[in-house]
Amino acid sequence: MKAFIRGTEDEFYTQLSDIENELSKYSDLKVFENKTVICNCDEPFGSNFTLYFLMHLNSLKLKRLISTGYSTSSIMGKELPLYVCGWGGI
Hints:
- The chain is an alpha+beta fold.
- The chain has 2 helices and 4 strands, in the order E-E-H-E-H-E.
């Protein structure tokens, strides 16, 4: 977990490695096949959950991914830089 301290508030963000480690424990990932995954995030474009499911969209055979949030984003409407995370493309 990564902690950012802003005054008296603490914010914790789940790391991508934590998500990968947790889901690797499940032997039957077919539960995602032809399903819609909904990620309710503070910042959908910055969410590691959104990133994980985008990176594994085809291998999990997801029907669709919906990622929502309530805040504005600095990268909304722009191309997502997935190549930065080592994902080579579609």
